[in-house]
């Protein structure tokens, strides 16, 4: 069903149709709620052709996983799916929320610009669930994108197995590099950690890594090199090429929530959207789930699981709000 400004008010507008948003959406339509998912179709994992570790779907192309999820969601009569980029979310005044029939005086207007020839979408919703995932910025190397999703990955749990016993890199400029190197050592001891000139591995950490055969390379990187689609090494700024066939990069992640406008959301030190244990953000009525909440990027099945858990809390919040019986339900 496509959405428009004249449609009835809905229960929840879900911003982002990845595993977190789709899973929450499925639970909520099954709770007889009118639910809209607005999705701009730019998932972080679009660089990859296979996703791993989702029980019953190991190895499935990520787009196929989404297609199945969307189909299951849209099979319910109260589901609406809009291919749209959300541009703004505004809070309704209490009087306006009551006027459209929202019993607890909480409501939002969500506006999205249609993509791929689709119409713009606007919803009046009792609650908002942000499941917009993260955008990522890779270390600034000219050819790195060409190998990202094939030779180079960012999620060790997702793609470590395929890299067992290979000569690997870990490239990153953040303070969690040491912990990542330890994780990767489970898959291959032939690992070089490239800090690209950043001072992010302490001398005692380097000693510990050296003790298990992992080298730390602190020189500046010029680029990733390869032959056709195959990565063959890392070229340093001084011209030396170190032979490597793949490995991991540590991107910097951003939570894309500019569309929230004047509705302020508390963020943690990494910029992730902070929620309470029910999944509600610091803004009443606005929930968040998936990669966008601490501890940040994890896995498809975790995002989907979070979506289901927060959907249940959201549903209870709306039931309690309608009956005026307060927030505490446990
Ligand atoms: C290269 C790569 C490979 C990966 N491989 C695996 C793997 O093998 N196995 C695994 O379990 N996990 C893997 N992951 C991790 C997995 O992709 C994420 O953990 C998961 O997708 C997070 O789900 P999400 O729903 O929170 O966000 P996403 O899947 O990122 O979905 C967010 C959605 O929100 C949309 N959106 C953003 N802003 C707006 C807006 N303003 N309006 C409307 N829509 C918006 C985006 O377009 C996107 O469709 C991989 C990640 C990457 C980067």
Automatic annotation (TrEMBL):
Keyword Flavoprotein assigned: yes
Recorded GO MF terms? thioredoxin-disulfide reductase (NADPH) activity
Q: Does the keyword Flavoprotein apply?
A: yes
Domain of life the protein comes from: Bacteria
Catalytically driven reaction(s): [thioredoxin]-dithiol + NADP(+) = [thioredoxin]-disulfide + NADPH + H(+)
Q: Which UniProt keywords apply?
A: Flavoprotein, Oxidoreductase
**InterPro entries membership:** FAD/NAD-bd_sf, FAD/NAD-binding_dom, Ferredoxin-NADP_redctase_2
Any Pfam family the entry gives: Pyr_redox_2
Stretches assigned to the FAD/NAD(P)-binding domain: 12-306
The cross-references to PANTHER family, in alphabetical order and at most eight, read:
THIOREDOXIN REDUCTASE 1-RELATED-RELATED (PTHR48105)
Q: What is this protein called?
A: Thioredoxin reductase
- Which organism encodes this protein? Leucobacter exalbidus
Q: What is the lineage of its organism?
A: Bacteria, Bacillati, Actinomycetota, Actinomycetes, Micrococcales
